[in-house]
Design brief:
Elements (H helix, E strand, L loop, with lengths): L9 H14 L4 E8 L5 E7 L9 E7 L6 H16 L1 H4 L6 E6 L4 H9 L51 H12 L4 E9 L3 E4 L11 H19 L4 E4 H4 L7 H7 L5 E7 L10 H25 L1
Parallel strand pairs: 3-4, 3-5, 5-8, 6-7
Antiparallel strand pairs: 1-2, 2-4, 6-8
Helix pairs in contact: 2-9, 6-9
Bound molecules: N~2~-sulfamoyl-L-arginine and zinc ion (ZN).
Zinc ion binds next to loops.
Length: 302
């Protein structure tokens, strides 16, 4: 079991995934998708309704591209908890889609943010003698490095020495490409600021199918607003925040052909990247309301 009254370390999260696969073998399976630079297992959990149908469309959700954004990891864990352990209530969400969830993209950074530097953002591969880590959300090979990314290895938004220089981004790339065709909704959890963002992140121009993305994001924002009153801002990444190329969202949409690709920036609770533990449950259950509404909208469209 898992609690939402504390932030969990990477090993605890992986143990929880394995516990679910053991408890619900007909519906839940865990895969070691690869290893981080420091050799930690990066696991995905696949949750189905157990009807045995293969080749269903897929919702792919990840969290923790940025190490310090702990509420995002907790949000992914809550989705896993709901789909796996509250199956009777949530079975509609698994009727036409399998869910593949990667709750800790960057475990080296996540652990480092627990043990050493709370505000660590990047991966942990050394670049120069002085500086470590690449911003995984600037490292994807789609307009890589063109805008909003640094060439300076000490920067928090360092784009990497090459596109896909990091094992962690290679792993998401391979998963996304393996799902091309079946993958209909890519959702990546970050914090903070209450945003639902869709492509593009590299240019202020909008893709031709932006309305589909807008509709899905708006459904999430509306559901959250009516459940808790919390306001989310909806729009393209560049137009709402800033232009920054090399993000996972643009790659999922532009290269892996996911028709809906959304970055969800969870709330801060007035404490930035570090909400108090008593705020976790409220934030992640509210996030789940939005994710359910978005998944339902995607199911209507694809
Ligand atoms: O800058 C980012 O990577 C994201 N914000 S955060 O505060 N979590 O770092 C926003 C990413 C939006 N998507 C793209 N720019 N592609
Ligand atoms: Zn982030």
């Amino acid at each position: 079991s898992v609690s939402f009254k504390a932030f969990h370390r990477h090993a605890e999260i992986n143990a929880y995934l394995d516990e679910l696969a053991a408890a619900y073998p007909s519906r839940v399976s865990v895969q070691v998708a690869g290893k981080s630079y420091e050799n930690r297992d990066i696991k995905t959990i696949t949750i189905t309704n157990g009807d045995g149908k293969t080749g269903k469309n897929v919702i792919f959700l990840d969290a923790g591209i940025h190490a310090r954004e702990w509420i995002a990891h907790a949000g992914a864990l809550y989705v896993i908890h709901q789909l796996a352990e509250n199956f009777a209530v949530n079975s509609d969400l698994l009727k036409n889609f399998d869910w593949v969830i990667l709750p800790v993209v960057n475990p080296d950074g996540y652990e480092y943010s627990h043990t050493t530097t709370r505000m660590w953002r990047k991966t942990r591969k050394p670049i120069s003698s002085a500086c470590y880590g690449t911003d995984a959300n600037r490292n994807f090979d789609f307009h890589w490095g063109e805008v909003g990314a640094s060439s300076y290895s000490c920067s928090d938004t360092f784009k990497g020495e090459t596109a896909f220089s990091e094992p962690e981004t290679q792993l998401i790339r391979d998963l996304l490409l393996s799902l091309t065709g079946r993958g209909k909704f890519y959702l990546t959890l970050h914090s903070y600021g209450n945003y639902l963002l869709y492509p593009w992140g590299w240019t202020s121009a909008l893709p031709s199918s932006w309305r589909d993305n807008d509709e899905v994001a708006q459904a999430g924002a509306d559901a959250i607003k009516s459940a808790t009153g919390t306001k989310y801002t909806v729009g393209s990444s560049t137009n709402v925040l800033y232009a920054a190329a090399g993000g996972s969202d643009d790659y999922a949409f532009g290269v892996a052909n996911f028709p809906v690709s959304i970055t969800m920036e969870l709330p801060a609770g007035g404490t930035g990247f570090n909400p108090s533990t008593s705020q976790i449950e409220g934030f992640v259950s509210e996030t789940w309301v939005g994710i359910k509404a978005m998944a339902q909208k995607v199911a209507e469209k694809y």
